[in-house]
Amino acid sequence: MKRWLKTVLLMHNSWLAMWLRQYLLPIVMLFPLTLWQ
């Protein structure tokens, strides 16, 4: 049970990291530009 939970968490973390890299990074990079204008 514990090992299964650990693998699920690991999978979720990698998916989350992928999602953050794909969607949040461009927003974070573009946000200051929109503030300056």
UniProtKB/TrEMBL annotation:
Record field: transmembrane: 20-36
Entry keyword set: Membrane, Transmembrane, Transmembrane helix
Annotated protein name in UniProt: Uncharacterized protein
Source organism (scientific name): gut metagenome
Lineage, highest ranks first: unclassified sequences, metagenomes, organismal metagenomes
